[in-house]
Amino acid sequence: MIKLTKDQIRELLPHREPMLLIDEIYDIDKLKSATAIVNVKKDSFFVQGHFPENPVMPGVLIVESFGQAAAALTAHGLDKSTYENKLVFLMGVEKARFRNPVIPDCKLILKIEAIRSHGRVWKYRGEAFVDEKKMADAIWSATIVDKK
Predict the structure, then answer these.
(1) How would residue 44 be classed by pLDDT, with cut points 50, 70 and 90?
(2) Could you give the CA distance from residue 70 to residue 126 in angstroms, rounded to a whole number?
(3) Which CATH fold would you assign to the domain 3-146?
(4) Rg, C-alpha atoms of the chain
(5) Mind listing the pLDDT tens digit for each residue in 59-88?
(6) What residue ranges do the domains of the chain occupy?
(7) Which of 6, 16, 51, 86 has the fewest CB atoms in 10 Å of its CB?
(8) Has 50 been annotated as catalytic?
């Protein structure tokens, strides 16, 4: 089973702490699907202000986590020359639902799937779970662009 560590994910993505949210990726089916882990901790950067007395991972960061996992899945499946000196930008979120709050000190499991690709534009679907309970789901699209 292919498994990517945080260091290997850093090689695929331009994101760095504190915005590199993905800790591990496994169950990779090249350019098709993968499972990612986000360790949501009590000292995560967003906890201090969202919300100090009742910390919750912001929904927008769950969507960002989906996007990072999808970008890493795609970069991992492509020839390095295809994504070298490129960035992946979120183009749109068609549908995002937040079913339950993601509370720190949990392992957020993201199951992502590439629905289709057309040139540099990709469309994905994802579901987020904590302890097998669905927390969120989304459909989004992204594109690969040259770094400027």
Answers:
(1) very high
(2) 9
(3) Thiol Ester Dehydrase; Chain A (3.10.129)
(4) 15
(5) 999 999 999 999 999 999 988 887 778 888
(6) 3-146
(7) 16
(8) yes
Strand partners, 148: none
Q: For 32-44, what is the mean pLDDT?
A: 97
Give the span between the Cα atoms of 19 and 28, in whole angstroms. 22
Res 111: pLDDT: 98
**The overall pTM is greater than 0.90:** yes
pLDDT at 146: 86
The active-site residue out of 15, 50, 76, 118 is 50
Q: Which of the two residues, 134 and 147, has the higher pLDDT score? A: 134
CA distance 19 to 10: 11
> What is the side-by-side strand order in the sheet with 106-118?
3-4, 24-29, 33-40, 106-118, 121-130, 133-146, 86-98
**Residue 61 · residue 22 · CB < 8 Å:** no
Burial of 66: CB neighbours in 10 Å, binned 0-12, 13-18, 19+: buried
Which residue stretches of the chain are H helix? 6-12, 59-77, 80-83
Contact between residue 63 and residue 125 where contact means Cβ atoms under 8 Å apart: no
CB count in 10 Å sphere of residue 27: 12
- CA 62 to centroid of chain Cα atoms: 7
